[in-house]
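TL;DR need structure tokens for one chain.
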Amino acid sequence: MHGFEEQKLHRNLDRLLGGWVQSGALPCVQASVYRKGETAYSRGFGWANMEEKSPLREDSIFRIYSMTKVFTSVAALMLYEEGRFQMHDPLSKFIPEFAQSKVAEADASGKVQLVAPRREIIVRDLFTMASGIPYQGENTLSEHAMSTLQKHGLRDEKAGKPWSALRFAQETAVKVPLTFHPGEHWWYGMSIDVLGALIEVISGQTLGDFMRERICEPLDLRDTGFRLPPEKVGRVVTMYAVDAKGGFAPANIDRTRPMEYIAFDAGGGGLLSTLRDVGRFARMLLGEGALDGKRLLSRKSVELMRTNHLSEQQYRDFAWGNQRGYGYGLGVRVLMRPELAGHGSAGEFAWEGLAGTWFTVDPAEQMAAVFLVQTHPGRHFDFVPLFAQAVYGAMDD
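>> reply
TL;DR here they are.
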């Protein structure tokens, strides 16, 4: 048996998830819980498209955004197991342009200058968000440079000259200064998008093709990828922007595009997937790298992935309110102090996505759970902890 008080699990989750939709807090939500070899819960509530009154389907397709990072980390670790790179290899060994990287460093007066890094970016920095490569934004010189680069990429795409993940990485190396000296801090950014480019260089395939052949097909992930065939576009859940009063309006995102920014195979956030597929991927990690007789990673690689890799300074940098008690491994959060998180077990790991999507793998409880919504902002603080509390609160063994 799955080790839940079944009536309590269904009663609490139905009330919680269905209540959010009924009250107007969410347009839709899907969730599943798997434990001890059984699916204990799998349900969805609400509309895939509120205006058209299109009901949510079991195979509705969600943009999973940064949950993609875990898929990319798995893909890279598959090459790591083949001896194709070492964690401390300089990134420039594979993408030479990164030998030219500069750091945007402020002097005592606050003036920002571009200086040589104290050391090069190494591959491990990409996995652990210690490279200094930022997301786009306007708060720092580096973020502004990334925003400019993204606009350049979109112009090229509209002109019929789309970039690859490798082209994006090469442009980043020479045009976007690092936010800090590699290895000295933790900064959430496009490190794992660059890791996707590294996969392309080493494998000789696009990231999408590599994932399809090495992850999706072996795990029977039927609806996971960076691109959708035309017959699947109608199954994509509408992304809703949330206004200041909690109202919803369809976000201005083309359903046929994987991301709002450059449409390369973005290893940091470009995948689309379903409740079923994410659940199977989570179960593979729960199975220490294997599912249904198909092994993707060794047990030791999964252990390495879900070990905290943060230094004391990086742990201070990773002080997000919704990650209390967590450290960071290879592309995943790692629970170190459950008493601070308020739920879970030491060693629980996985990641989440911009639109409020989330999944967890808890080896101590032999459990994996998936939570999918599609709003911007995702409002993880509001929903994910309550979902997790209800799941853990229904255990009866």
